[in-house]
Design goal:
about 1550 residues; alpha+beta; seven-stranded mixed sheet; six-stranded mixed sheet; 51 helices; 55 strands; globular
Length: about 1550
């Protein structure tokens, strides 16, 4: 149960250790890298790690990557030996990987042990609509005999059922019988009559009009049981929804109390709750998890539950010490957990109460006031002329034709017109250095500038303001301001002129200051000209950008030339005048300009005071992101916000006087662009929990007496240095001026702020100031100021004793005691100066901490801090010092803020329903709870909440899962009934579907099994599985026809009865009426998406091979561990090639690819004989924020894929084109097809078909026999195995060997991203057409599809060799020679006639596909795209497999095969039958003739070498021969 493999970078065999003694005796020094080793020595462990670490693995120990060895520990992690060896290896500090050894040998010898029964799947029994008789009745009696074979079980008491009748347990009655057997018999006869009535009633499915209120009726029944009734609501819900077809007829009779109507209406009228119900139903600790996905994976759900349990345990462990001073730690933890579940909404103020108003505004086309995460920078006020406004929509004459009426503007917008109103709705402020080109250095490639020009061109009311500055000038201005106090009205000085008289214009570089001077000059001189200013700025900046990109520089000569040309072009000056005038302007000093002021200097000081730098853009004060997508998103949000302000009257035709001024007033408006604001949305990296040994006596408290907001401001300084000491002095001197309140909406909230100053380095910790700062709350602020000054002024080192001499005795003693605290403090290396406010970090580095920094930090976190105080207020002991209140509040606020910043979104769903609960009243609750955490062992547990419609499709899955979580995992569970108010015809109500979800062992202890009982006798049922997306599941045992399950009134319902021709009534009664079906997990699927820089490399060929390695003569194994995960067995160091296991193409649709695999390590490669192998390499990339990002420049020709559990969320793959192949095609080069692999084509006719149900399997064998008999070449059949029975697979292979053909089974899993189908027949139709490019191996170049119910009379070689004239496939047009059915040919008029435009409508019963061309022309991608569009309407594609290629003829040409290739009696005349090459048994719309009867009649006579009956007999003989041999 343990193995250690030691790998060396030398080409030596690995060392394998199998015991603790061997590990302890190992000479490990040989693996340590010696100091001073030369560069040509063996590589260190890093290369071994890169070679052997599997995707998803990470190091658990071993920090010394310079060591020259790597240990891989395999073991059973619950064994004592594993723990001992792990501890020993960890002490050695050798790089180490740890892998789990499993217990099941899954592949090498699959029959060596009993198969493992899996849970985590669903089984659905759908009531089938049978228009035509589709039963294989070879073993049954005639229809006439069947009609007269009803059994009267009441004739004899021995034949009466002895268990349940009409809900009464007869067995229990007999056990308690006192001898009155006649009474029991009499009761049984009466109950039998009642039982028959109940059976008949339960099999009736109510019509749509009668079941419209079924959700409300089910809710009423469940609520009545839960509110004062007896019974388990959850168990009843499970039984109700999983057997809905049987109980629906009873449910529709239930009366609906008024409070149920009231509850349902309130749910869906509440915007917030309705959004929640529309998006998710299941929550773990407020984390939404979808259970309605087509390929729901219960193992993903269990991973979520497991992860949430770990988070809860982490929270309990980390928070408990912080709240230990409270009166009840457990109550505090429970409340904190609830706050954590609320997610980002906790501490968000009253925002969440505005959803109703917000929804109303949205309906009206606008928005309610925006949320607090939107902030603005006041870049509109402070320095007149600092911002150069290019235009003014409200004043400029060029806008005089625009309306001033806002309502008229709104009306125009409804008709798609722009909001052209004469108000400055949008003010765009751009900070530019036009002499730079990239956005990183503030140049003109600026999203805000591009957006402004587009908006202006599209007649949007945009006012443009420019702040043109050079970054170097900004820094000089900043230094000038820091040197000493400057007058508030003084611009930054600029002594030297822009241009000297003797400067060469062609040699002097243009500057931002020069551009600023020219634009300012133009605006003053010519700004009154209509439209001139915007045109001048746009063309000037466009020219400057082009000049920089072309020549790499911009000279003064070029700048003056374009300036002069623009003025002349606009007719503003005469030829030659403009250049001289502009040069004269550039030669002047700022004080000599027309304005008489230093305008550029104003702009520089404005930029410094507002924290601006070139490259920034602001829309109405809102900072714009660098990327185009983000810029457009902000604009869209701002437009909705402005429309909302107009709708609710905040903006009117004549008020406010300045919309811009109104927007830059109030909450969320900051005076400067602070680095904290630059960070954007907070992430986990935005928060830090500082580790230190100091207690609350280290806090310097600054507070308002009425404080309700408690804030901890921890400042990390290296006051062992001159700079750090200066920073400390500045902080202490300014602390009393730091804010003790925060304002919002004209309301002031008092704060208590505790400042703690921590050492940033060991030198600072050794400083004499450290002990006094560790007791700062006792020493006092004034004393701290004096002590800091004393240290700063001292020319020699000062001891703690000398420093605190002047303090009183108590303070001296406390400071001396703190010396040990400082000595034990070990700050992290390279720690930067920063402040941590309730966990939020701001690094100020070498700058000085300012009051505005504190103000901004507190404004970001005060709401959460206040909410935490209110959460815990009653738990604080009386008269607790403020410092001891700040500590727990800050710790909890930090935890909640850091958790809220993570990608996991949380919301307390149960809390949303509490208000509705209160309105309805007690005793009428729709919320039910189990495993109340307050009644448990005191430990925190994950809280599970589910809001369900009792008759929804997803509830069929969810109800048994909730039962497992409640009864087995013992988690607290809340169930909320959230019914729809009514259902329509296209709802997801499973009215015709029985369902079982297997989440664990069955109730009878038989292990994971889906058990159906009391199924209807009057319906035909078809079985479907509901399995996770990575599972390829195939049927392994079934006696009955799972496509047509029914109870035969002659032979009963059991598997045993199905194998016999007739049973007596006594035998039926004695038999256990059991149908058993088994499925096996045939493969796990490897799938994912593949992209290159330009998008999916559609058509790229992938090959999957087993990744195997050999070491010490041992073969690698991959084993299944007991918890369901799959760990790699001993992974040896050297790989060996393996033949391909499966292959596929990358689709254009989302770059999807799918390959069959099994648990273990695999190599994914590009097919080496394909063109793609020449063009592409695999890049080293990872997913980051929804995008593939290259992790390194490493390229490879294969990629390692590990399938280690039942959860596969998809592999994201990035491929990179090789140099020289940037424009190469995967398919064509010099006009020649290059998709062919190196495999030579053989003379084999490939035939594809599919079937479901025993009857069609019978037809399929007859088709195969007829094809083989008539075809001159060798035939290979490719049969889609997903719906085939295991018996058919065995017998068809045996028959193929006898008749001389080949049979191979293919499979494909419907991708989740492609819209699925729910009816089994439509699923089969989809498989028939949607995946032809990826269904077969890539070396299959052509395929002929033949329907299972056809008989072939001609040689398919003729069809195989037919020239399709460049079309990817050929179909036979529908016959029109039978006059009696022409009226049923819907394509002759209406939509189809118009769409086809004279093209024929083809039948899909037989077609030939040139797979080579099909793949080259990406026909599969086109068909899937069209399908995805059309299938959004459930009423489209009525005959999916046929309608889709016919509809797509405008894009994908169909070659029309000669009519003789398909004859069908329903559409073709009898006269044309003589030349028919194939006979299809298509259904006749005039009558419902059973298939077998039609086959016997149609395929008979002199036209056929063998009749259908003779072919059927031959097939049956092959089956019997095989079964006899098997026995």
């Amino acid at each position: 149960d343990m193995l250690v493999v030691i790998l060396s970078p030398l080409d030596e065999p690995p060392t394998v250790l199998t015991s603790l003694q061997e590990v302890e005796a190992m000479e490990w020094t040989q693996f340590s890298k010696v100091e001073g080793e030369s560069a040509d020595e063996p590589a260190n462990a890093t290369e071994l790690i890169d070679e052997h670490m599997l995707p998803g693995e990470f190091f658990l120990s071993g920090q010394d990557n310079s060591a020259s060895g790597l240990a891989i520990l395999y073991g059973k992690m619950d064994s004592p030996k594993f723990g001992q060896i792990y501890s020993h290896l960890k002490r050695l500090d050798l790089p180490m990987l740890v892998r789990s050894l499993g217990a099941v040998d899954y592949e090498e010898n699959p029959r060596s042990a009993e198969p493992t029964r899996l849970a985590g799947f669903g089984v659905r029994l759908d009531i089938r609509n049978v228009e035509y008789k589709v039963f294989d009745d070879r073993k049954k009696t005639s229809d006439d005999e069947l009609d007269g074979a009803m059994i009267n079980l009441t004739e004899s008491e021995d034949l009466m059922p002895s268990e349940f009748l009409a809900g009464v347990n007869l067995t229990a009655l007999e056990d308690n019988d006192d001898g009155e057997k006649s009474n029991i018999l009499e009761l049984r006869n009466k109950l039998w009559a009642r039982h028959e009535a109940q059976q008949t009633q339960s099999q009736k499915i109510p019509p749509l009009w009668q079941r419209r209120q079924l959700p409300l009726q089910a809710t009423a029944v469940l609520a009545a049981q839960g509110n004062g009734g007896k019974g388990d609501v959850l168990l009843t819900l499970k039984q109700l929804v999983q057997d809905l077809p049987s109980v629906a007829s009873t449910l529709v009779q239930a009366k609906i109390p008024p409070h149920v109507h009231q509850w349902a209406n309130a749910l869906w009228e509440d915007p917030q709750i309705s959004r929640v119900l529309s998006n998710a139903q299941f929550y773990v600790n407020g984390r939404a998890t979808s259970v309605s996905r087509p390929s729901f994976n219960v193992f993903e759900l269990l991973n979520v539950v497991r992860m949430e349990e770990r988070r809860v345990q982490h929270m309990e462990k980390s928070i408990t010490p912080k709240v230990s001073s409270l009166t009840s730690t457990q109550t505090a933890l429970s409340r904190i957990q609830q706050a954590w579940i609320e997610g980002s909404s906790f501490g968000a103020g009253d925002e969440e109460d505005n959803d109703e108003d917000e929804e109303e505004m949205r309906v009206m086309g606008g928005r309610a006031p925006q949320k607090s995460n939107v902030f603005r920078i006041d870049v509109g006020r402070g320095w007149k002329q600092a911002v150069m406004y290019v235009n003014d929509v409200e004043k400029d004459s060029q806008y005089r034709q625009w309306t001033r009426n806002l309502q008229q503007m709104l009306m125009s917008m409804q008709y798609g017109m722009p909001p052209s109103v004469r108000r400055n709705l949008y003010t765009m402020t751009l900070v530019l250095d036009p002499t730079k080109t990239t956005v990183q250095n503030g140049g003109t490639e600026n999203g805000g500038l591009d957006l402004t020009m587009k908006l202006m061109q599209n007649q949007y009311p945009v006012r443009l303001g420019l702040v043109i500055v050079d970054e170097d000038d900004v820094q000089k201005c900043k230094t000038w301001l820091q040197e000493e106090e400057r007058e508030a009205s003084m611009p930054c000085p600029l002594d030297a002129p822009i241009l000297k008289a003797d400067d060469s214009l062609s040699d002097t570089p243009a500057t931002a200051r020069a551009v600023h001077r020219l634009i300012d000059f133009f605006l003053r001189e010519y700004g009154e000209q209509p439209g001139a200013s915007t045109a001048y700025v746009e063309y000037l900046i466009s020219y400057v950008t082009e000049e920089l990109e072309t020549n790499g520089k911009l000279t003064m000569a070029a700048l003056l030339n374009v300036h002069g040309s623009l003025l002349e072009m606009m007719g503003l000056v005469g030829p030659g005048d403009s250049k001289a005038e502009a040069k004269a302007a550039l030669l002047k000093n700022e004080k000599d300009l027309l304005s008489g002021t230093n305008v550029y200097g104003k702009g520089l000081r404005f930029a410094v005071e507002r924290g601006l730098s070139p490259g920034m853009s602001f829309l109405n004060g809102r900072p714009l992101p660098d990327d185009e997508e983000g810029t457009h998103k902000v604009f869209s949000e701002e437009q909705q916000y402005l429309m909302g302000m107009i709708m609710n009257g905040q903006i009117r035709n004549d008020s406010p006087r300045s919309i811009y001024g109104k927007l830059l007033t109030g909450e969320g408006v900051f005076s400067r662009m602070h680095p904290l604001l630059n960070q954007g949305k907070a992430t986990p990296d935005s928060y830090e929990e500082l580790k230190h040994p100091f207690d609350s006596t280290s806090l310097i408290i600054q507070q308002d007496p009425d404080a309700k907001v408690y804030f901890a401001a921890e400042i990390v300084l290296d006051y062992g240095t001159e700079l750090g000491l200066a920073q400390l002095k500045k902080i202490l001197d300014s602390m009393e001026s730091f804010p003790t309140s925060v304002s919002e909406n004209d309301t002031t909230h008092a704060m208590a702020v505790g400042y703690r100053i921590l050492p940033a380095s060991k030198e600072a910790a050794a400083s004499p100031l450290c002990p006094v700062l560790a007791k700062a709350g006792i020493v006092g602020l004034e004393n701290l100021k004096s002590l800091a000054t004393a240290v700063a002024q001292s020319s020699s080192p000062v001891s703690v004793e000398d420093l605190v001499t002047e303090l009183d005795a108590e303070k001296r003693q406390e400071a001396k005691l703190a010396t040990d605290l400082c000595a034990s403090f070990d700050p992290p290396e390279n720690s930067v100066a920063r402040i941590v406010g309730n966990g939020r970090v701001f690094e100020f580095g070498s700058e000085f901490l300012a009051s505005e920094d504190i103000e901004l930090l507190s404004s970001m976190g005060w709401k959460r801090a206040k909410a935490v105080y209110e959460l815990l207020e009653d738990l604080f002991p009386a008269n607790l010092p403020v410092g001891q209140m700040i500590e727990p509040i800050a710790a909890v606020a930090l935890f909640l803020a850091a958790e809220g910043s993570k990608a996991t979104n949380r919301q307390d769903v149960a809390k949303m329903f509490e208000r509705l609960e209160r309105e309805i009243g007690k005793g009428k609750s729709m919320r039910f709870q189990w495993n109340d955490p307050s009644e448990g062992d005191g430990r925190l547990r994950s809280l599970v909440t589910a809001a369900v419609d009792p008759v929804d499709l997803s509830t069929q899955r969810l109800a048994p899962l909730l039962e497992v979580l409640r009864d087995h995992l013992k988690l607290p569970v809340q169930l909320i009934l959230a019914p729809q108010t009514s259902i329509s015809g296209d709802s997801d109500t499973p009215i015709a579907s029985y369902y079982r979800f297997v989440a664990g062992s069955s109730e009878n202890g038989e292990g994971p099994i889906a058990h159906f009982t009391s199924l209807p006798l009057d319906h035909v049922l078809t079985l479907r599985l509901d399995v996770p997306e990575p599972w390829d599941v195939q049927q392994t045992h079934a006696i009955q026809d799972t496509d047509n399950l029914r109870c035969d009134m002659t032979t009963g319902c059991s598997d045993d009865a199905h194998t016999l021709k007739s049973w007596t009534p006594r035998e039926i009664k004695a038999s256990r009426q059991l149908t058993q079906v088994e499925y096996g997990l045939a493969h796990l699927l490897a799938f994912g998406q593949c992209y290159e820089d330009k998008g999916p490399p559609n058509g790229l060929q992938f090959v999957l091979s087993r990744h195997t390695q050999t070491a010490a003569g041992e073969q690698a194994e991959v084993e299944l561990s007991m918890d369901g995960t799959i760990g790699a067995g001993s992974t040896p160091p050297r790989a060996s090639p393996e033949p391909r296991y499966s292959d596929t193409l990358v689709m254009k649709n989302v770059g999807y690819w799918q390959l069959r695999a099994n648990p273990g390590v695999w190599d994914l490669a590009i097919e080496e004989s394909s063109k793609g192998a020449e063009i592409f390499d695999f890049a080293d990339a990872v997913m980051s924020r929804g995008r593939l990002v290259r992790k390194s420049d490493k390229l490879s020709q294969s990629k390692k894929i590990v399938l280690k559990d039942f959860v596969n969320k998809g592999e994201m793959i990035l491929v990179k084109r090789r140099k020289g192949y940037e424009g190469a095609s995967l398919f064509f080069e010099d006009g020649a097809s290059i998709i062919d692999s190196a495999l030579a084509s053989d003379d084999v006719i490939h035939v594809f078909s599919l079937a479901t149900g025993h009857l069609y399997e019978r037809f399929l064998k007859i088709m195969m026999l007829s094809v083989t008999k008539r075809t001159s070449s060798k035939v290979k059949f490719w049969l889609f195995e997903n719906f085939l029975s295991p018996t058919f697979k065995e017998t068809s292979r045996a028959m193929a060997r006898r008749i001389g053909c080949e049979v191979e089974f293919v499979t494909y899993k419907w991708p989740e991203w492609l819209r699925g189908q729910t009816e089994k027949q439509r699923i089969i139709w989809g498989y028939k057409i949607l995946f032809l490019d990826v269904l077969f191996p890539l070396d299959v170049k052509k395929i002929i599809y033949v329907d299972a119910d056809q008989v072939v009379r001609a040689d398919l070689k003729e069809l195989w060799d037919m020239d399709l004239q460049g079309a990817p496939y050929g179909y036979t047009p529908f016959c029109s020679s039978r006059a009696t059915t022409v009226g049923y040919q819907f394509w002759r008029d209406g939509f189809w006639k118009n769409h086809l435009q004279g093209r024929p409508y083809h039948i899909s019963a037989l077609y030939v596909v040139d797979l080579k061309r099909f793949r080259e022309e990406l026909v599969g991608d086109q068909l899937r795209s069209i399908y995805q569009q059309l299938s959004a309407d459930p009423n489209s594609l009525a005959n999916l497999d046929q309608d889709l290629p016919n509809y797509a003829q405008n894009q994908v040409r169909i070659f029309s095969l000669p009519q003789d290739w398909l004859w069908c009696e329903s559409w073709c005349s009898d006269e044309t039958k003589t030349t028919a090459k194939t006979i299809d048994l298509c259904n006749n719309p005039l009558h419902k003739e059973p298939k077998v009867s039609m086959a016997k009649r149609v395929i008979d006579g002199p036209l056929f070498n063998e009749s259908w009956v003779e072919l059927d007999a031959e097939v049956e003989k092959y089956e019997k021969d095989f079964l006899q041999l098997k026995v």
